[in-house]
Amino acid sequence: MSKQPFLIAMTFMSIIIGGGFASGQEVLQFFTGYGVIGIAGTLVSALLFAFLGMQIARMSSSMQARSHKEVLVALFGTRAGLAIDLVLSFFLFGVGVVMLAGSGSIFAQQYGLPPLFGGVLLSVLVILTLCLRVRGIINLISAIMPVLLLLVLTITVYSFFTSSASLETLEAVATEVPTISKGWPVSHWFIGALLYASFNIAVGFPMLSVIGGLTRDSREAALGGILGGVGLGVLIFLLNIGLFANLERLVGVDMPSLMLATAVSPLVAMVMSLALICMIYSTAVGMFFAFTARFATPETSRFKVFSVLFTTVGLVLSQFGFSTLIGTVYPMLGVVGLVLIVALGYRWHTARREARAGLASSSSY
Q: Which UniProt keywords apply (predicted)?
């Protein structure tokens, strides 16, 4: 077997694991806040990630798609595909806003500075990167991913084994955590798991479509999607149990992973905060670049002006707060992802039905 499936898997995971995941806030709201049953939610998300990753990569490989727009047109038709693309772009801007808010939360929680300081600093870095085309910085930040994952896993495993809270206490505290579906007509762990997979697929769909289209063997592309989904599931599971074991210390905290790192040692917390800032920066650049590119050609004067405008607007909106924005923007993006899930599931069902019909007709001769 070639290395291509593993390359697709690692890229798939890198797309999904951004600043929101590493901070622990996503996992806290989508899984941990439901208590022990949230573990079942991580398994549901893992299965969905594996299936959807397989389907997107295989479909784009079969089409040899050069952009995600071709896959959207194949799924929804020309007009509906364009509409979905525009809505998706709008919510990707929302993810960029969440990253600006996350930067403010890191500087406030770790260094005692006003949240606006972190937001302004990241906004300036994002604008400079988009205007000056500093590709080397993004490549350097990408190298932080393995370090960040190792930190997160080490901290959560350490926190799990050093936790002394009883299961009854943790279940009681979980009721105080603002989960995604609390306040909905139906609050259920399955809804959290479904929305988590759907909003992340919406975020990762454009890049995964392109990567799949670069792979000639659709079976290898599908395997890469499956491996990436399973890997994501393992990471979510481990982070979730680490957060749950220490939930009594994390209620109302914007950066749960950073709080756990502080409990290990101040040095680990400092390294963790720097790694989080790097990941948030990388995610923010990607989101604002994709959104701005919808309105102007990259590297033009118009693109630079729009980069400044959109990032500044994002900074203003980011003042609503990291936790609040995650609880608002991500479920809305999840609805867009649900549309994608339904379309991908229907496409998979149709392809299987046609394949069975083909086998039946060939066997009749």
A: Membrane, Transmembrane, Transmembrane helix
